[in-house]
Specification:
Length: about 425
């Protein structure tokens, strides 16, 4: 039975496309540097964003439960829009910190809410068995949106000669996304809790339940190792991945081509084109995870990708320091591909180690741990980059990741 490609199918895909029109993504570090931020400042801002997202996930979840999913999504895009305006208008660390909190609020409101709306739609239609394929279709629209966004970002920076307008112009697709949310039918709101226990009582009940599930994770050593393996790698990846941008800038300014263009224009061309193909490759990598595990046993695949990712980051750092940017960029692209190949495998492995009754809690623990690690890694990388340079910073982080792999290695001989 084919997927019903009705109006909601098109709206879900359009949502995926619009939410990934983040024209600032390929230039976020370059933007902050242009605004006078040090690498340590940038790392702290990233930490503020990640920590705020986790803190706000609980209250925003209750708001979504109480007021409805559509209102939660409207609140998410409203928060994004205010954050974009602050980034564009006020070049100040503390204003940017506030903008990061608002951005985190948008992430917290949006996270999981739209997936819940899709699941509700599939349940109503009686096609819940098609959820994997359905998600695949909406995800492909998101990845395509990221690729298109990279090309649009190139044009913005190329013609404006500055990174600042990427936030202003990102508001256009996000206003469109907000209007799209208003067009969603009311039946996708789900069961809105308006009776029974008070909000405070529901919070206490949920907290006790979450705390119990959280502690259960620490009694299951194999599950804890799986969670740690996934969270540590992803935390280090998220804390270092955007340093591809200054490397691309150095490459763009160092090659003797397009010399008639300004530095901004050459950087925009190189960064945008690389990110365009990068998103296409990562999309292919995610889709290939299943085929990869058919050839390589799951636990072995997780271990291999952990080592491969750390080595690629190390290579990128070393060759960045040596000024051999082409090799460094190639290694970084390889790291992105490995991460997107690895992520579906780690989620699958964790799900095999945790009871379905505590699955949400297990993945929540993994998400929380990943956020904490990223919040620690990002300012540390920034501090090292300010003192020793980006190349040394990435090499040190990669060496640390290889060292941490030893206690987090998945035992390939142990049965489930």
């Amino acid at each position: 039975m084919p997927i019903p490609k009705d109006r909601m199918y098109l709206k879900f895909r359009l949502y995926g496309f619009l939410k990934n029109q983040r024209f600032f993504d390929p230039f976020i570090i370059l933007f902050f540097r242009e605004m006078g931020m040090s690498f340590l400042d940038i790392g702290l801002l990233f930490s503020i964003r990640e920590i705020s997202t986790n803190i706000l996930e609980i209250p925003t979840g209750f708001i979504a439960d109480s007021l409805g999913r559509r209102k939660a999504m409207v609140s998410a895009f409203s928060s994004y829009l205010i954050a974009f305006a602050l980034f564009y208008l006020f070049p100040s660390f503390w204003v940017y910190a506030l903008a990061m909190v608002l951005y985190a609020s948008g992430e917290a409101f949006r996270s999981g809410t739209h997936k819940a709306m899709i699941l509700e739609y599939l349940r109503i239609k009686g096609i819940e068995h098609m959820k994997v394929e359905y998600y695949g279709h909406t995800r492909s629209a998101s990845q395509f949106g990221s690729a298109v966004s990279s090309l649009i970002a190139v044009a913005i920076v190329f013609y404006s000669g500055t990174y600042r307008p990427v936030f202003l112009l990102s508001m256009i697709p996000y206003v469109m996304a907000l209007l799209l949310m208003l067009s969603y039918p009311k039946y996708l709101d789900g069961a809105v809790e308006t009776k029974g226990a008070s909000t405070m009582d529901r919070m206490k009940i949920r907290f006790r339940s979450t705390w119990k599930d959280f502690m259960d994770m620490f009694r299951n050593r194999e599950a804890l190792r799986a969670i740690g393996n996934s969270a540590v790698f992803d935390g280090f990846f998220k804390g270092s991945k955007d340093y591809l941008q200054p490397i691309l800038k150095a490459q763009a300014l160092g090659i003797p081509v397009f010399l008639y263009l300004s530095g901004y224009q050459r950087t925009a061309l190189i960064v945008g084109i690389v990110y365009f193909f990068l998103y296409l490759l990562t999309s292919m990598a995610s889709r290939s995870a299943g085929k990869f595990t058919e050839r390589v046993e799951l636990k072995k695949g997780i271990n291999l990708t952990f080592i491969a990712g750390a080595l690629l980051l190390l290579i990128s750092g070393i060759f960045t320091h040596l000024g051999m940017y082409f090799i460094s960029i190639s290694a970084f692209i390889g790291l992105y591909i490995v991460q997107n190949l690895r992520r579906p495998m780690t989620v699958g492995y964790i799900s095999d180690r945790i009871s379905h009754r505590t699955m949400a809690s297990g993945l929540s623990v993994e998400s929380q741990l990943r956020t904490i690690i990223m919040a620690l890694v990002a300012p540390f990388v920034g501090y090292l980059a300010d003192i020793y340079g980006v190349g040394y910073a990435l090499a040190i982080i990669a060496a640390l990741l290889l060292f941490i792999y030893i206690p987090l290695r998945i035992d390939e001989n142990k049965t489930k």
